[in-house]
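Holo model, (3S)-3,7-diaminoheptanoic acid. Inputs:
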Amino acid sequence: MRDAAPKTIYLKDYTPFGYTAQSVHLRFKLAPKATRVISRIAFAPNPDATDKSFFLHGEQLDLKWAKINGEAITPQISEEGLSCDAPDEPFIFEAEVEISPETNTALEGLYMSGGMYCTQCEAEGFRKITYYPDRPDVMSTFTVRVEGPHPVLLSNGNPGDSGDGFAEWHDPWPKPAYLFALVAGDLVAHPDRFTTMSGKDVDLNIYVRAGDEDKCAFGMEALKKSMIWDEKVYGREYDLDIFNIVAVDDFNMGAMENKGLNVFNSSCVLASPETSTDSNFERIEAIIAHEYFHNWTGNRITCRDWFQLCLKEGLTVYRDSQFTSDLRSAPVKRISDVIDLRGRQFAEDGGPLAHPVRPGSFVEINNFYTATVYEKGAEVIGMLKTLVGDEAYAKALDLYFDRHDGQACTIEDWLQVFEEVTGRNLKRFKRWYTSAGTPRLHVKESYKNGRYKLTFRQETPPTPGQPQKKPRVIPIAVGLLGVDGKEIVATQVLEMSKRQQSFKWEGLSAKPTPSILRGFSAPVILERDTDDAQRAFLLAHDTDPFNRWEAGRELAKSTLLAMIETGAAPSAGYLDGMLAVLRDDTLDPATRALMLGLPSQSDLTQILADKGVTSDPQAIYDAVQTLKLAMAQHMQDTLPRIYAACQVTGPYSPEAEPAGKRALANAVLALGSRLDGGKAAQEQYDSADNMTQQLSALACLLQENVGDAALAKFYQQWKHDRLVMDKWFGLQVSYAAPEDTAKVAETLTQHADFDHKNPNRFRATLGALAMHHAGFHHISGKGYTLLADWLITLDPLNPQTTARMCSAFQTWKRYDAGRQTMMKAEIERILAQPSLSRDTTEMLTRILAA
Ligand code: B3K
Ligand code: ZN
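Output:
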């Protein structure tokens, strides 16, 4: 419920808590509407704190009694917590509260999903379970007793005593309350074992609902691969006797790294060839790795306060991307990450929600689990590693783990280990953490008498609250190609730290072609005067796979912008270039598939907006359709050969190689469908024996408007499977014509299987609407109204998911006056709702303030 005056919390106001928690004992007597939580916490005055007031967070708790050192007390209770006098020496605080998991639709704290109990405490959910200093710098050991009639009763740490109707758990590693977890239910385990590098045996389990047992094997393999990788690459070993993962259907995000008891959205762990696509498999592997890696980067070393969120998230995303690069294809992973970064993080950084990787203030911390904190946070670590080198990075990480194990840390602690190991001063580099916005990197070249010069100028546009930007340290990886296309200067990293800086090469016999920002060595927007001939040259010759892809993407942008702005026909150069890519058997199929992809319609809108052009979403949509048709026609003779060559035979495997072949075959199928009206797609649909093939074919049929029969068949085949049904909901919206998108989404929200309380189904339907650029922004305004209606409906039930989806409106200023007026009206309509959550209020207020 909306606070009378939502408080802004500032990093600069941080003070330590007056007390340390030495040990926590919790007893849960589970009951759907009346769970009792009995707590016993040993506190001691914190010598590092000056403020000794004793305040415990607590929200929506029914306090039955509280005691200090065995004596009943009458604390002051507010909507936010409990305060009372506390002794100036070690003491025991005890309390009993009652909570109602069954009616907890916010999915934060202790709640119920499909009959099971589960928890989500990060960031501030523990305060909905019991009174506690719910802040990450208060770390304690936890001993938990769970009582309930359920066959499976779980909490963090190692198992202790258990018997009929109860189980005890002890977690010896001090942790903040946000890592607490409890699960109880009628669950089935998929068990395994792992022996760590020092020979310790660990029990592994993935717990699922009955019926899902056959979807655990892949996740379990991913977990073991993650354990081995972290030992090998970071020297980090697992530290408990048991590691449990639980799949939950109702979950606000992907997964949660609770110590020894990871809780996963079932969509991020359950996998089978029949029900999951190649991208699902890859995502599941990455998320399992991510949560596992948090055991060291997040759990053993945690954050001092929530402003330091990137300390664990940026680093852990960086680690999981290294893992995926090692296990699969490094260039493919890099290209995919950059597509994602540009789509989500650049949009955030260029709009009203822009904030630094380490924000300076927030109202609701859940609103800061963003692409900036996660993905840009990971980019910053990648840059740091590029600047200091692999060896120094490894040494700095060892020092970080040695020095800070068991502590709650800051970005200053993190940078300090790098400064000590390298002797470098990272003061300037730190601006990446404190300054928002995506730097523009302009480059000019000159060549005279064998001397080649690149001059870079950096500039970051103002962002909310930060009108002036200081220059940043930018690692620019550059290589030079000779006139014959051969590399004459191999990749070197130029370190730019001034506003403007030049770099020279001597003794070149002719003007080279530069390949700049190889591997996307910094999260910047590169602006250079170049032409399609140079882009085509790089597309054909660059030795850096990322920049080769980038050259193709630049060509695509250039042809699409000409089509949109001047009504030009698709460029022959682009079509020829893509045909050459398609035929280039030296390129692996996955890379070719990525190269054939076009920039997103939302990215194109942003590029035009940066040039001061207000674009029409329908015109962008039409240009993309025209270009795809032109590509199909131009490649007509080659498509069948590639489709045939990329057919994978034998049993399905989600490995990178067959998945890459399927990606290219399905990209070819999508183009070909524009010519054969979906004939080949129907054949593929009818014969598909895995979800990748089935879903790709269905998408082609929907694209060609001939998918009704397949859609109905798909429903009959999969109506029992929640995760597959999410795909059924999402695909129909994604492939609707722009003028029909809102209607299709609206009809789906009336379907018997639509459940707005389930975040996966809500996102599958209304998230797909928000992602359908031309459909959401259709001139009728129906997309805006439908989304706003549903955000209004969901907010009182689930503020977190509502607030997250408000970002669909963050780009409202990019559009024409008519659309701006409609979007603004919808934002204001939501804001006018009585009792709007703090989460949604903060998001929409920031969006509107632009
Ligand atoms: N740390 C959690 C995210 C918690 C989000 C809270 N709103 C999952 C992750 O990043 O691994
Ligand atoms: Zn994380």
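The CA atoms of residues 90 and 153 lie 32 Å apart. The radius of gyration is 27 Å.
Archived with the compound record.
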